[in-house]
Design a protein that fits this description.
It comes from Xiphophorus couchianus (Monterrey platyfish). Pathway: Carbohydrate degradation; glycolysis; D-glyceraldehyde 3-phosphate and glycerone phosphate from D-glucose: step 1/4; Carbohydrate metabolism; hexose metabolism. Helix content is 42%, strand content 20%. It has 457 residues and is of the alpha/beta class. Bound molecules: beta-D-glucopyranose. Beta-D-glucopyranose binds next to α6 and β10. Beta-D-glucopyranose (BGC) binds next to α6 and β10.
């Protein structure tokens, strides 16, 4: 009977194919000049036109905002050794009041953290090129102009959606008046991940995050990016695949639990795909399933504990811990104030496995769509490529499910996964470095100190 309740989470490989076909169509819609306004999958141009070639070098400042912390890093890129070294960094927590406060408060907090770091490093007189990893969907006008479309992942600061994030940061710095910055290259974390892996492995042309949120980017042919002028070369597209399904296209695979998670989130109706996959939501899905099974008297002799009844008490990290072994399951269930027996512990483990395996399979369906698109774009029968990956959900879970599904969905492609080491931090430096070296390129329209647009005319 338990299995019957878990059935809606089990997606067959055939179903994954259907999901992949839908995403393929949505990606085309997102790229289109006249269709992108209404597209659920936004396919945002990033103005990053090249992956690293290994000759990049220099000192950079990187800012990173995407989770519950803000970080500033001083990164040195060394050409001789082809490596990036984090010289120093500072972390500032973003308390919940700020995540849900005003934009002004958020950017004042960021500017203060940056100021402290520059002081501690004695960098206030200098103007190092700066990259800002801002891991939210942004409509980029240029590499240094980035308008927030919407907050995700628990952020909801007022007065930022629809505004240019670089402008808000600069205004906050001017309000302080103790230092200034020049240009800022804006980077999504997927792009940072692709670029930092790309420095190590130049075949890396996809970046994927499965962490608090989920998303991927890849190198698309410019001729298909109808919203940006120019036909030659490539541009990295931030797919924002988390929004897949926001137009109702995933209705047939949404379970009653997914609907509750969405309804009780701070952004109902948006980022449907993300809510089935990423760390911010997986624990809550498991909790809701456990509640239901308990109500049906299939678990814990029908007795729900106070903790289990409370929203978000079942943390996503419990899932991988429980998958690791029954002993962990027993410990966690006791901590949640539940009275359990061995059968209960096994059932809970099955629930965790089911939810995390659905997440992995859905990711595989989406990633397969991108990989196959690159293959078709290049007119190749087979494609060998590398995906840079980051995010706790990817790192903490066994990934054989994802790889098995990929193998089935893209039999013509050979995919290497490269786990990024701090792509959000170092990747921002790399984007800035590549933008700098492109600005020395003869075909580049110079907009000092960064090259924003490469034209061949
Ligand atoms: C955001 C993306 C980001 C992803 C992973 C999503 O919620 O919309 O921009 O890349 O999370 O951090």
């Amino acid at each position: 009977i338990v299995v019957k309740h878990l059935e809606p989470f089990r997606l067959s490989l055939e179903k994954l194919k259907v999901v992949s076909t839908r995403l393929r169509k949505d990606m085309i819609r997102g790229l289109g000049k006249h269709t992108h306004h209404r597209a659920a999958v936004k396919m945002l141009p990033t103005f990053v036109r090249a992956t690293p070639d290994g000759t990049e070098k220099g000192d950079f400042l990187a800012l990173d905002l995407g989770g519950t912390n803000f970080r500033v890093l001083h990164v040195r890129v060394m050409e001789e050794e082809q490596k990036m070294v984090k010289m120093d960094s500072q972390l500032c927590a973003i308390p919940q009041e700020i995540m849900l406060g005003t934009g002004e408060q958020l950017f004042d907090h960021i500017a203060a953290c940056l100021s402290e770091f520059l002081d501690s490093q004695n960098l206030k007189g200098q103007t190092l090129p700066m990259g800002f990893t801002f891991s939210f969907p942004c409509e980029q006008k240029e590499i240094d102009k980035s308008i927030l479309i919407r907050w995700t992942k628990g952020f909801n600061c007022s007065g930022v959606e629809g505004e240019d994030v670089v402008k808000l940061l600069k205004e906050a710095i001017h309000r302080r008046g103790d230092y200034d910055i020049s240009s800022v290259a804006m980077v999504n974390d997927t792009v940072g991940t692709m670029m930092s892996c790309g420095y190590r492995d130049q075949t890396c042309e996809i970046g994927m995050i499965i962490g608090t949120g989920t998303n991927a980017c890849y190198m698309e042919e410019m001729k298909n990016v109808k919203r940006v002028e120019g036909e030659d070369g490539q541009m990295c597209i931030n797919t924002e695949w988390g929004g897949f399904g926001d137009d109702g296209s995933l209705e047939d695979i949404l379970t009653e639990f997914d609907k509750v998670v969405d309804r009780t989130s701070i952004n109902p109706g948006v980022h449907t795909f993300e809510k089935m996959i990423s760390g911010m939501y997986l624990g809550e899905i498991v909790r809701l399933v456990l509640m239901k099974l308990t109500e049906k008297k299939l678990l814990f002799k029908g007795e729900v504990s106070e903790a289990l009844r409370t929203k978000e008490t079942f943390e996503t990290k419990f899932i991988s811990m429980i998958e690791d072994g029954l002993e962990n399951a027993k410990k966690i269930l006791t901590e949640l104030g539940l009275t359990w027996d061995l059968v209960d512990a096994r059932v809970v483990r099955l629930v965790c496995e089911t939810i995390s395996s659905r997440s992995a399979r859905l990711c595989a369906a989406a990633l397969a769509t991108i990989v196959d698109r690159i293959r078709v774009n290049r007119g190749l029968p087979h494609l060998k490529t590398t995906v840079g990956v980051d995010g706790t959900v990817y790192k903490k879970h066994p990934n054989d499910e994802l790889q098995k599904a990929m193998h089935f969905l893209t039999p013509d492609c050979k995919i290497k996964f490269l786990v990024s080491e701090d792509g959000s931090g170092k990747g921002a430096a790399m984007v800035t470095a590549v933008a700098h070296s492109l600005s020395k390129h003869p075909h580049c329209m110079m907009v000092p100190p960064l090259c924003f647009t490469v034209r061949n005319d």
